[in-house]
Design brief:
4 strands; single chain; mainly alpha; 44% helix; two-stranded antiparallel ribbon; 225 residues; two-stranded parallel sheet
Length: 225
């Protein structure tokens, strides 16, 4: 059962023990095996869907790239390239500065409901989270796990407090407690609380519950944009 009761605007002072997290060798091994098996099977089973999405992106904006690569911050602050289906215009990163004042989320995160950079195909992909399917490749590489905190941007981490940096004690995930619960309905600090709650309670059954809920949300979206 997934408990979202801790996703509040008040800090819960969750202080994680890095040594305890590192010592969970059996869990980390089993989690990695599950990541490898499920991500590999997912890429094979979803290959027709991936092809259809690629064609839709190319047809919708002929001069643009299909895959978008962006630098993110992973476990222990290690930088890696994340892969997604492109859902925005090609110069989206350059236009971000012009939109910062319209940010609808407090804290070290940017969210804008009617983001003018999102393409028509991109709106559908983001609503169903299909734009994130290429991250299964990141899971195979070991940059990410299927379940974990959202991998932040370097400029976001630059604004983190020591408390917020606890999110970086574990491998980031394609999905997580934040994504399957409140998601865009809460701010940055609430997201941090949900991530720390997940890290404290993490286990294989908890991960499987989040994965199953993620699949449901891809079919019946929960407000992603």
């Amino acid at each position: 059962m997934i408990d979202n009761s801790q996703g509040t605007s008040v800090r819960n002072n969750r202080i994680l023990d890095p040594e305890r997290l590192k010592s969970r060798h059996l869990y980390h091994f089993c989690k990695r095996m599950m990541d490898l098996v499920l991500s590999a099977c997912g890429l094979v089973a979803l290959s027709p869907v991936l092809l259809i999405i690629a064609v839709a992106i190319k047809y919708g904006e002929k001069d643009g790239a299909i895959i978008y690569r962006q630098q993110r911050v992973g476990k222990d602050g290690k930088l890696f390239s994340i892969y997604k289906f492109r859902s925005m215009c090609m110069d989206a990163d350059k236009k971000l500065g012009e939109l910062q004042q319209l940010n609808e989320v407090e804290g070290a995160m940017f969210k804008l409901h009617d983001d003018p950079r999102v393409t028509k195909v991109g709106k559908m992909l983001r609503r169903t989270s299909l734009d994130e399917l290429p991250q299964l490749y990141n899971v195979l590489r070991g940059d990410m796990s299927l379940v974990g905190p959202r991998p932040p941007l370097p400029n976001e981490v630059a604004q983190y407090s020591d408390y917020d940096k606890q999110r970086l004690l574990v491998t980031p995930g394609c999905t997580g407690l934040w994504q399957v619960s409140a998601r865009n309905e809460v701010g940055f600090h609430e997201m941090v609380e949900l991530d720390l709650q997940y890290i404290q309670r993490s286990g294989l059954m908890y991960d499987l519950a989040i994965i199953l809920k993620t699949i449901k949300i891809m079919i019946v979206p929960n407000g992603a944009y």
